[in-house]
Amino acid sequence: METGIKGKIALVTGSGRGIGRAIALALAREGADIAINCRVNKASAEETAKEVQALGRRAMVVMADVTKEAQVNNMVTQIVKEWGNIQILVNNAGVGFVALVEDTEKSEWDRIMNVMAGGTFLCSKAVIPVMKRQKSGKIINISSVAGERTTQNSSANYVAAKAAILGFTRQLAYELGPYNINVNAVTPWTVITPLSIAQVGKEQLEKIRQGIPMREYPKPEDVADAVVFLASDRARLITGFSIRIDGGMSLPVGTRTWDEYYQSHKDAVKKNTG
């Protein structure tokens, strides 16, 4: 069955590596042309572009900091100028942080909120006029199970940002519904990437894995598959919704004691401050 993605133009933020790259490639396999965004690592973004082109689709690298409104607007203008349209936006750009609230500086709170919640807002706002003109579009926001409940692997600012994305998704879906624009979210649990391995540690990840009902972590490709579904015609009447991908991890309360959680966050602060 055709997905309706072939020939469409997708902008995927934070797509130089990890989950973003997997999403870009999955959409390219379905026939989309991909605008690949990253903030600083142009070489990594160009690697994604080469992989997209190897699949027979067009690729464009657009460097922009999603926390800067002028850069975001310029990015969208460039894509529309060169390719004429944007039918799919995937707000994926994100960062990680591990600390207790009592050890979190205001600057770190702002950084996490600005990248994830702020970037989702700015990129969505920038494409709305484009999608309203064509009376169609798909906006897909990458949140987290942490935004629905809590997490032992990150911090309060991360949870707050991911929760904000879910609230934003619902409200924007309501606003844009009359224009045939779908707005949805994907909420994975810990996805195995170099970042998650560095942040949580292999030993702790293995311990947590044993508590997952399906005994497997989500892979970037699992998130990408959900994005492809939400970007497709098969999801034409789904909006304001989130798809959880966690192998059942959110069913149990957790795998660490509170003391282990507290100490791991204290240790992270010591590690980050040298």
What does this structure look like?
It is a single chain. This protein is 49% helix and 14% strand. The mean pLDDT is 92. It is globular. It has 9 helices and 7 strands; from the N terminus they run E-H-E-H-E-H-E-H-E-H-E-H-H-H-E-H. It has a 7-stranded parallel sheet with strand order 3-2-1-4-5-6-7, with helices on both faces. Helix 1 (18-29) runs parallel beside helix 2 (42-54) and helix 1 (18-29) packs across helix 8 (220-231). It has 274 residues and is α/β, with parallel strands linked by helices.
Short structural summary:
The chain is 49% helix and 14% strand. It is built from 9 helices and 7 strands.
Number of strands: 7
Helix content class = 40-55%
**Total number of helices:** 9
Poorly predicted parts: none
Shape: globular
Question: Rg, please?
Answer: 18 Å
Classify the secondary structure makeup into a structural class.
alpha/beta
The overall pLDDT, averaged over residues, is 92
Oligomer: single chain
Question: Keywords, please?
Answer:
274 residues, alpha/beta, 9 helices, 7 strands
List the helices and strands and how they pair.
Layout: E1 9-12, H1 18-29, E2 33-38, H2 42-54, E3 59-63, H3 69-83, E4 88-91, H4 106-134, E5 137-142, H5 156-176, E6 181-188, H6 194-200, H7 202-209, H8 220-231, E7 242-245, H9 258-273
Parallel strand pairs: 1-2, 1-4, 2-3, 4-5, 5-6, 6-7
Helix pairs in contact: 1-2, 1-8, 3-4, 4-5
